[in-house]
Design goal:
Bound molecules: iron/sulfur cluster
Radius of gyration: 20 Å
Number of helices: 9
CATH topology of the largest domain: TIM Barrel
Helix content: 25-40%
Length: 247
Amino acid sequence: MNKAKVIEIKRFAVHDGDGLRTTVFLKGCPLKCVWCHNPESIDFKPQVAYYENKCIDCGECVSVCPSGAHKIIPKGHIFERDLCVACGKCEKACLGEALKFYGKEMTVDELLPILLEDKDFYETSGGGVTLSGGECLCQADFCAELLKKLKEAGINTAVDTCGYVPKESIDKVLPYTDTFLYDIKAIDENVHMKCTGKSNRLILENIKYIDSLNKSIEVRIALTTNTEDASNGEFSVFFGLSSLKGE
Ligand code: SF4
Ligand code: SF4
């Protein structure tokens, strides 16, 4: 049974494909986009986020942490991240909801019933389930098993990918994916390097490959005020994602 590290399961998503969808965000990404709005999704390892403004200094985390990562000092609570071994206990104990554990390991059979809960909404809205991240195809075996079971249950499926994965990873999910939501961060290779830390050659090769198989692709592009911003790696104004649909 394949397992994946899950960041979040988002119900009633309306920006991750057609209709009402449940989006599953998996942890780990090969790119490091300068505008990344989900920084917790980049690292492949599980992580704990600490929201200092929510902390009420109750000390519950201190009593459950096996590695002494949490301490209460006269000035209040401190979190020594380097000591954390990612057991997840402090998130459950935290009374202020100041701690969030990203990267819970789940099997396909644990995830599937949660995703099927909203089947009626998918059917009435033309929606379904979207796998996203991070880069979900870095955990391609898990994605393939989950997507296969979703298709067997009659659910529309989408894969939101940055495309920076081996072609073999795409091949694994192709038979069970109705639509690819495909991020093109920049066409110019140098701009792409500056914005994401990686070349876009593999990404462009992969989208051509998917297109050659006549799969449905929705291209998503980042918008900036001007290309100077992009080439400088500065995104002081970022409007979001624009989509271009094609079948
Ligand atoms: S996840 Fe576990 S090890 Fe890490 S800080 Fe929380 S309780 Fe401590
Ligand atoms: S359990 Fe949560 S609210 Fe309490 S001290 Fe720890 S981080 Fe702060």
